[in-house]
Amino acid sequence: MLNARFFTVFGPRQRPDLAIHKFVRLLQAGEPIPVFGDGTTARDYTYVGDTVEGIARGVAYLLSQPPGFETINLGNSHPVALLELIHAVGEAVGIAPQLVFQPMQAGDVDVTYADSSKAQALLGYAPQTSLAEGLRQFVSWQQNTNGSPLQA
User: Fold this and answer.
1) Is the pTM of this model over 0.70?
2) What is the CATH number of the domain that holds 66?
3) pLDDT by residue (tens digit) across 96-152?
4) How many Cα atoms occupy the beta-carbon half-sphere of 15 within 13 Å?
5) Within a domain: residue 152?
């Protein structure tokens, strides 16, 4: 059995309630982006295609091994600060973001990111899609489908 842990997966068909989707919509509507805290909280953004590649490698690994149990992290192992993400989304959309700073949300954590060294060692997993490229692909999909997760 393989237990895969995913880290902030983004890209086409992303849920509309998640940050990147919301930021793109706000920018396109000419509205400011709320920043909770000082913008230094960080997450490990992993492009959906890289996550799917990790899943496929995991399945292949399982089929080649005797029964057992492994837990692996599928992520970039590189946290990106909220302000860096917002500015990267702005570049992908072509609109400079306006920011509105607000108090930190209760229960939020400062940094989360994957240690994907085990996935690298067992599966040869190594994400290939940069944040900028993944955001460009998300924005292209969003503009072509009006952001509906059910559309191609």
Assistant:
1) yes
2) 3.40.50.720
3) 999 999 999 999 999 999 999 999 999 999 999 999 999 999 999 999 987 666 655
4) 5
5) no
